[in-house]
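Q: what sequence does this backbone want?
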């Protein structure tokens, strides 16, 4: 059974489900009167709760003896586990899905009983963000937003950094980087030495293409010299920034150390997944598969690890295993980006009917996430450029570039312009994505391939050859559809003539 099947967000537990049938609405109105009397600050969230009958009398105390001792021990263990999970979600650390489910249930009960508890609302919102990220259930994001806004309103001017920091994480999960920067800076102002505020702020700066600010934030984070449970998370964040700078060896060393020092299986699995992604980016299929397999063993609900397994297995030619891994990833986290990967793998295998079904799912899943406030313009633009309407891709990605001009958007816009036939303009954006002096320091085979193909059509053969060779040197398996095109195009360009100009 997949992780989604075990979640308790049914109509009798979730705070933010739709109201029930008419008889229940009459009870709900009575609950609202009580809730509003307890405090208007929590009213907007409380009005969405379903009815939960109150017990007629207090439960009898457990009987004395061995059974009572066992129950007390189990209760204490649950409390300890929930405290650890709460600390993790407030710090933005990975948490296991069953632990998140337990924490959410406990905090839902707590805010029902104490609707003015701003910290409980903040914990609940942060847990919703993490669960939404883990499961790709975009419905958790509106729940998170309402809970966190309730926390802010309830706390008033006495609020701490927890709710703004969680709002920054939520905005990053939705790819709303301007909002993430705003909330992250607000959280940082409230607590300048709180290490866990910096990672979300770094993600926001990266998404906005402000790499100088991202590096400055990392320097400040490293200067805090975080210890204990924070140290692995800081190393993992440093790894991501080093990767974006093109420092692949440093990035690999940092995330390897982070995985070794991680305090929980879920955290270790997340860092092993990150290490696997770095290994695959440099074309090391076997090392990538080892990391992804270890991560999935530690945390079976780690969908990114399962998708990584699919990627590495496909590159190794183990096609059926790859398809199974991708399907498992989508069973845990039905995200549109992994759906697109699977569709392209099917297409590369000549399985047209299966590919078309997955391409249709990409659109359906992207619309569902957009309805929950997720910015899927980058993914939809990529999809349209390669499998739909290139002009629509240009329109979408041009607007996205105006709003949040990161490297990923530059690459996607350049490729969309190429597919639409405007290679001169396409090269401007492809250069931004691949030129370290313009921010594009990351070593990406896909980015190099896109620039090489654009240059080929502009008859810049020397530069086209160099970038296509670079793409295959970085990772010969970067795409089941595009890597073969890179090899075929290089064969048509032939060897570089002795008198050909230096790289352009």
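A:
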């Amino acid at each position: 059974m997949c992780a989604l099947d075990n979640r308790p967000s049914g109509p009798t537990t979730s705070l933010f489900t739709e109201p029930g049938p008419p008889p229940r609405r009459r009870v709900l109105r009575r609950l609202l009167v009580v809730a509003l009397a307890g405090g208007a600050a929590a009213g907007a969230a409380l009005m969405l709760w379903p009815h939960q009958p109150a017990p007629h009398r207090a439960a009898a105390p457990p009987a004395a003896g061995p059974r009572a001792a066992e129950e007390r021990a189990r209760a204490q263990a649950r409390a300890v586990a929930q405290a650890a999970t709460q600390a993790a979600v407030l710090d933005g650390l990975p948490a296991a899905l069953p632990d998140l489910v337990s924490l959410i249930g406990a905090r839902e009960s707590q805010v029902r009983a104490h609707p003015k508890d701003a910290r409980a609302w903040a914990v609940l919102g942060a847990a919703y963000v993490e669960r939404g990220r883990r499961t790709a259930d975009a419905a958790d994001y509106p729940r998170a937003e309402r809970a966190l806004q309730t926390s802010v309103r309830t706390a008033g001017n006495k609020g701490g950094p927890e709710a703004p920091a969680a709002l920054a994480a939520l905005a990053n999960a939705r790819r709303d980087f301007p909002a993430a920067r705003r909330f992250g800076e607000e959280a940082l102002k409230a607590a300048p030495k709180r290490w866990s505020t910096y990672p979300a702020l770094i993600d926001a700066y990266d998404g906005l293409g402000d790499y100088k600010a991202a590096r400055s934030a990392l320097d400040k984070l490293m200067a805090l010299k975080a210890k204990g449970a924070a140290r692995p998370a800081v190393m993992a964040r440093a790894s991501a920034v080093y990767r974006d700078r093109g420092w692949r060896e440093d990035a690999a060393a940092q995330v390897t150390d982070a995985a070794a020092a991680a305090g929980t299986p879920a955290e270790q699995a997340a860092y092993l997944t990150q290490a696997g992604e770095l290994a695959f980016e440099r074309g090391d299929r076997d090392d990538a598969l080892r990391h992804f397999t270890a991560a999935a063993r530690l945390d079976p609900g780690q969908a990114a690890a399962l998708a990584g397994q699919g990627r590495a297995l496909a590159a190794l030619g183990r096609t059926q295993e790859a398809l199974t891994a991708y399907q498992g990833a989508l069973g845990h986290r039905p995200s549109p980006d992994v759906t697109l990967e699977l569709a392209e793998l099917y297409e590369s295998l000549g399985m047209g009917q299966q590919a078309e079904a997955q391409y249709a799912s990409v659109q359906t899943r992207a619309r569902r996430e957009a309805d929950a406030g997720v910015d899927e313009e980058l993914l939809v633009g990529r999809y349209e450029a390669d499998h739909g309407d290139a002009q629509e891709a240009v329109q979408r990605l041009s607007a996205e570039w105006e709003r949040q001009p990161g490297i990923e958007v530059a690459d996607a816009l350049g490729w969309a312009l190429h597919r639409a036939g405007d290679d001169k303009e396409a090269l401007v954006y492809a250069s931004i994505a691949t030129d370290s002096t313009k921010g594009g320091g990351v070593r990406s085979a896909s980015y190099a391939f896109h620039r090489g193909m654009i240059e080929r059509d502009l008859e810049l053969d020397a530069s086209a050859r160099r970038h296509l060779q670079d793409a295959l040197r970085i990772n010969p398996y970067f795409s089941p559809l595009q890597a073969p095109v890179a090899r075929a195009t290089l064969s048509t360009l032939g060897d570089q003539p002795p008198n050909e100009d230096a790289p352009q």
